[in-house]
Specification:
Blueprint (H helix, E strand, L loop, with lengths): L41 E5 L27 H13 L4 E5 L9 H10 L4 E6 L6 H10 L3 E5 L5 H8 L5 H14 L5 E6 L8 H11 L2 E6 L17 H9 L4 E3 L9 E6 L6 E5 L12 E4 L4 E3 L8 E2 L1 H4 L5 H13 L19 H4 L2
Parallel strand pairs: 1-2, 1-10, 2-3, 3-4, 4-5, 5-6, 6-9
Antiparallel strand pairs: 7-8, 8-9, 10-11, 11-12
Helix pairs in contact: 1-9, 2-3, 3-5, 6-7
Bound molecules: S-adenosylmethionine and iron/sulfur cluster.
The site of iron/sulfur cluster has 13 residues, from helix 10.
Length: 358
């Protein structure tokens, strides 16, 4: 199924990077497998590298956006999704950069809404959401939304995002998302030592107050400032200890075996949940079902891959759906077994989270 293709130069004149041909066993109709036996059904599609924030753990203050011509076009994003669906992808998360800055977000969601996709979600900082836009996204086919907020203190929100924003903006986005029915609403919080780790229990209160799912995320080495250090990671155990001092948590059954998050409810049956994403101290690579496509059309089989495979030249040279599918199959076959953050020789990927798509 894998086709030998000439090397085609991308618009940035760099040689296109293509994966080695996967063995025949990789080609199973309607299913995407990696070489470690994992089935991949969850696509994270980044639709822009632009952002109105510059979060310290994500994007350099002077990050230079990729030239527009290097980003995939509207039609190219749709082609990627369409081909991925033929390969067994059932869930799509639209992300970025800040996806709400993408001028064709609503048409894109409308087209995705017409496709047979079980779950369409979007991650956003929420700052540009309005009642009208949220309602339109929902009507177009978006099922749910994840918002990002890293502190409940305005001074810290500004410090972390390096933007003029505040807590109220996020609370407003939660209310808008609720009213639009974009549920279950999740709020991602990246916990960093000596930055916001004294707010862990406050975020549990926040989950209860707003009846939402707060996801506390261990700081991952994908930051812009290259300031990540093991000592800056607040572990899942520490987070649980901090919350249990104030509330009794009960662990919930893992409804989705591929979910990266350890999920908890409150023993007093208050609404609101806590999820902990412990990528560093409790890696969940064995259950990973994800594939990432960057805004410029690079396939990343793992968030921490040092290699990525350039689908864009194929997309721009009139390749057939079968050729694109073969390229994706070959790319996924290269998915690494684990992320090796905890190995002495771990190398941080060049791209930061904003350029990969979180
Ligand atoms: N701009 C949108 C937002 O902030 O929600 C979507 C893109 S952002 C890259 C997606 C998610 O990645 C955010 O929830 C953010 O907190 C998370 N993220 C970014 N850098 C991270 C890092 N170094 N460690 C852990 N999570 C990170
Ligand atoms: Fe922008 Fe989201 Fe990265 Fe913050 S986390 S800089 S909002 S892409």
């Amino acid at each position: 199924m894998s086709t030998a293709l000439p090397i085609i130069l991308s618009s940035s004149d760099e040689p296109a990077n293509k994966p080695p041909a996967a063995p025949l066993e990789a080609n199973r109709p309607g299913q995407l497998y990696d070489s470690h036996g994992r089935v991949i059904h969850d696509l994270r599609l980044s639709i822009t590298d632009r952002c109105n924030f510059r979060c310290r753990y994500c994007m350099e203050p002077d990050y230079k956006y990729m030239p527009q011509r290097e980003l995939l076009s509207f039609e190219e994003y749709l082609t990627v999704v369409r081909v991925c669906l033929t390969l067994g992808i059932t869930k799509i998360r639209v992300t970025g950069g800040e996806p709400t800055l993408y001028s064709q977000l609503l048409p894109l969601l409308t087209e995705l809404g017409k496709m047979a996709i079980e779950d369409i979600a979007m991650t956003t900082n929420g700052s540009l959401m309005t009642q009208e836009s949220a309602k339109a996204w929902k009507e177009a086919g978006l099922h749910r939304i994840t918002l990002s907020l890293d502190s409940l203190r305005d001074d810290r929100v500004e410090h972390i995002t390096r933007a003029k924003t505040n807590l109220n903006s996020s609370i407003n986005a939660i209310k808008i998302a609720k009213a639009a029915g974009l549920s279950p609403i999740r709020v991602n919080v990246v916990i960093m030592r000596d930055v916001n780790d004294d707010e862990i229990a406050d975020f549990a209160d926040f989950a209860r107050e707003h009846e939402i799912d707060v996801r506390l995320i261990e700081f991952m080495p994908l930051d812009s400032d290259r300031a990540w250090h093991r000592s800056a990671v607040v572990s899942a155990d520490e987070m649980l200890e901090a919350i249990n001092k104030r509330h009794t948590l009960v662990q919930l059954d893992r409804k989705n075996p591929h979910s990266p998050s350890l999920n908890f409810g409150f023993a007093d049956k208050s609404l609101g949940k806590i999820g902990i994403i412990a990528s560093v101290t409790r890696p969940f690579c064995g259950a990973c079902s994800r594939l990432r496509v960057t805004a410029d059309g690079k396939i990343r089989a793992c968030l921490f891959s040092l290699e990525e495979w350039d689908l864009r030249p194929l997309l721009r040279s009139g390749a057939s759906d079968e050729e694109l599918a073969a390229f994706i199959v070959d790319s996924v076959w290269t998915k690494q077994k684990g992320h090796s953050i905890n190995a002495a020789d771990f190398v941080q990927p060049k791209r930061t989270m904003s350029a990969i798509g979180g």
